[in-house]
């Protein structure tokens, strides 16, 4: 049985650790959003945590720029469905445009 350890807070990112089993290697998953690290809108960064360092900001920038450099684009057609584990892939989406086609 996998043992699962989750780290999260209302002001921070979520990280999952799944221990190795006889049939699967250990796994780490994370939900990334820069705004949880630096604060945003109604959810400012807690005063109890020091500001992120320049190295941490560069690491967050690296994740973003790698995602922009190596995107996996999908061309959904009517009836298509896609299932993604949010802890296994960093993803984003473009705005939906309704073409009014029937």
From TrEMBL:
Keywords, ordered alphabetically: Oxidoreductase
Gene Ontology terms, MF aspect: oxidoreductase activity
Domain TauD/TfdA-like as annotated: residue spans: 40-98
Pfam families referenced in this protein's UniProt entry, alphabetically: TauD
Keyword Oxidoreductase: yes
Protein name: TauD/TfdA-like domain-containing protein
Species assigned in the record: Hymenoscyphus fraxineus
């Amino acid at each position: 049985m996998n043992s699962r350890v989750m780290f999260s807070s209302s002001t921070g990112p979520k990280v999952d650790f799944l221990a190795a089993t006889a049939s699967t290697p250990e796994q780490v998953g994370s939900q990334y959003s820069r705004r949880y690290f630096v604060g945003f809108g109604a959810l400012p960064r807690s005063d109890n945590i020091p500001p992120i360092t320049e190295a941490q900001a560069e690491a967050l920038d690296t994740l973003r720029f790698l995602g922009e450099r190596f995107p996996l684009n999908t061309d959904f057609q009517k009836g298509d469905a896609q299932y993604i584990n949010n802890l296994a892939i960093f993803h984003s989406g473009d705005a939906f445009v309704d073409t009014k086609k029937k």
